[in-house]
Design goal:
It contains 18 helices and 20 strands. By secondary structure, it is of the alpha+beta class. Strands 2-1-5-4-3 form a five-stranded antiparallel beta sheet. Strands 7-6-10-9-8 form a five-stranded antiparallel beta sheet. The protein folds into four domains: 107 residues, PAS domain (Beta-Lactamase), CATH 3.30.450.20; 92 residues, 2-Layer Sandwich (Beta-Lactamase), CATH 3.30.450.20; 122 residues, PAS domain (Beta-Lactamase, 2-Layer Sandwich), CATH 3.30.450.20; 159 residues, Reverse transcriptase/Diguanylate cyclase domain (Alpha-Beta Plaits, 2-Layer Sandwich). The structure holds guanosine-5'-triphosphate.
């Protein structure tokens, strides 16, 4: 019997070619022998076989897994009882996984053996190996993966998501902040993906999750769907919150310090600076605005504040390049301010990560020190050098003379009959005379000369680089100038004169006592010679 007489490619009923006309794969598998016994043309294409004989000769035994064997063994009694089994199978015809919806039934072959007739019912649903592996990966992934439709209704979730969230079936229900979920859905219509950290609802309460959202298309329906991947980051968030608190605590300390602080990284960029730093350098900027600033450029922009600008910059480079150890130094600023600077390199696990500059205005302390130094070396009534300074300076000059580097002279000046002035007018008035004498000396000596008040009304003048004859004439000039000054001084209710002894520093003097004794002797000689005069004792 034939069908379709006129059709050129018509197949004959009962002919295998008839089955070849089917577009769905059909084959017979001998379960016991694990061999193909029949395959139609669609099945040959499906199995990527060129000829039926090639496929029948194919060795399935070596490729079949134990799971497959067990599944087939389960089939045997069911098929024998006449059951038609409808199930999905994954095959690897050309090394690639293909999923096929199969309808399996028992057939008896010509040789009487039983075979399994397989009809591929829905071969359109197929996936390549990488998709299947990806699905497998998602199944085992600790990341929670859920898939929702365009309205946020749950379609599927992987075991991790299932375990974390049972019963919460909608996209919105996953989020603690429902308004956020409400915003995300339309946002995903505009952007294909987005990521965020959010507090999510899970079985045991609320957790921080990192959420990755991505728009996709349902491969079955072609409708939009949303894939959501979640990772629990609660411990990271807790740590971050603790770090934030420590950072803020550190910031409060830095901000509260009077020390000007500037932390640089290893690339010489500012990491953090405080207000005190800006104030010290007179910067009209907030500490925050200094972040990222190039410190080399910054050093050049403030160098003019220092008495030695280039040295300031050079020292920074020196410390950074070579230093690498904690250092402290003193900087002098124009206008008389002093800054103490400390440099501390920052090492983490022996690796250099930048350094901290700490600046402190020590002007007050420096002035205090200078004040105490002056107090220790200056006579408070006249402002002249005191006995201690005289001893130091005279010792210095004596050593230079000893080395024959210079000639030097020494004057001893004593007010004539000062006791009578004190006795008649009182000490306070007498002090005015002492001050006038000191000022007259200051006004009429060279800068290199050192006038000193070495006793009550006893004054000395150290004159380095001074020849003896010149020293004598200077002494006579001073004697005159002092007398005249006392006459000219309006505020002084008395006149006075002085007697001056002149001597020179000798190279052979054993100590400064020798030279002061000669000056003393010369001065007493002047007193003997009638006072208001000069006597020399070389
Ligand atoms: N006003 C005042 N007088 C002082 C000070 N120190 C010392 N004297 C006085 O200086 C006077 C020194 O006198 P004397 O050295 O005895 O001799 P003089 O009266 O100056 O007479 P001649 O030195 O011999 O010319 C004393 O009356 C001291 O009290 C001081 O700081 N202020």
């Amino acid at each position: 019997m034939t069908l379709f007489h006129d059709a050129p490619h018509a197949a004959t009923f009962g002919d295998d070619a008839l089955l070849d006309r089917l577009q769905t794969p059909v084959w017979i598998f001998d379960i016991e022998q694990e061999r193909m016994r029949y395959a139609n043309a669609a099945a040959l294409r499906f199995w990527e076989a060129d000829t039926p004989q090639g496929l029948y000769a194919r060795d399935f035994t070596s490729t079949m897994s134990e799971t497959t064997r067990r599944r087939l063994a389960d089939y045997l009694p069911r098929l024998a009882s006449g059951e038609v089994i409808d199930e999905h199978w994954s095959f690897y015809p050309g090394g690639q996984a293909v999923s096929l919806h199969c309808r399996c039934s028992r057939v008896v072959m010509r040789d009487g053996c039983s075979g399994m007739l397989v009809e591929g019912v829905d071969s359109a649903i197929s996936q390549d190996a990488s998709s299947l592996r990806a699905l497998e990966a998602v199944r085992h992934s600790p990341m929670m993966v859920s898939v929702f439709d365009g309205q946020g209704r749950l379609l599927v979730r992987n075991p991790a998501a299932l375990e974390a969230r049972q019963g919460l079936a909608s996209f919105h229900a996953c989020f603690t902040d429902h308004a956020l979920a409400e915003r995300l859905l339309p946002q995903l219509e505009d952007e294909p993906r987005c990521s965020l950290d959010a507090i999510m609802q899970i079985n045991g309460g609320e957790r921080w999750h990192h959420v990755d959202l991505c728009r996709a298309t349902d491969p079955q329906t072609g409708r939009p769907m949303i894939v959501m991947g979640e990772l629990d980051i609660t411990s990271r968030k807790t740590l971050e919150a603790a770090q934030l608190v420590s950072r803020r605590q550190l910031e409060v300390v830095i901000e509260g310090l009077e020390l000007g602080l500037l932390l640089e990284d290893e690339h010489r960029r500012v990491i953090v600076a405080n207000q005190a730093f800006c104030d010290l350098f007179g910067l009209d900027a907030s500490p925050e605005s200094l972040a990222e600033l190039n410190c080399r450029e910054a050093a050049h922009s403030v160098k003019e504040y220092f008495t030695e600008p280039d040295a300031f910059v050079a020292r920074i480079e020196e410390l950074v390049v070579e230093g690498r150890k904690q250092t402290r130094d003193l900087l002098t600023m124009k206008g008389g301010r002093f800054l103490e600077r400390s440099y501390t390199p920052l090492f983490v696990a022996d690796e250099y990560h930048g350094h901290l500059w700490a600046y402190r205005d020590v002007t007050r302390q420096k002035r205090q020190q200078a004040y105490w130094a002056r107090q220790a070396s200056t006579d408070p009534l006249t402002g002249l050098a005191n006995r201690r300074s005289f001893d130091d300076a005279a010792g210095e000059v004596a050593r230079s003379v000893e080395r024959e580097e210079i000639e030097a002279a020494l004057l001893m000046i004593d007010i004539d009959r000062f006791k009578a002035i004190n006795d008649s007018l009182g000490h306070a008035e007498g002090d005015k005379g002492l001050k006038l004498l000191a000022n007259t000396l200051k006004d009429n000596l060279r800068p290199s000369d050192l006038p000193c008040r070495t006793g009550g009304e006893e004054f000395m003048v150290i004159m380095p680089d001074m020849a003896p004859e010149e020293a004598e004439s200077v002494a006579w000039r001073l004697q005159r100038q002092i007398a005249e000054a006392s006459i000219d001084a309006q505020e002084l209710p008395f006149h006075f004169t002085v007697s001056i002894g002149v001597t020179r520093f000798r190279p052979g003097d054993a100590n400064i006592q020798a030279v002061t004794q000669r000056a003393d002797a010369a001065m007493y000689q002047a007193k003997h010679e009638g006072r208001n005069c000069v006597a020399v004792h070389w």
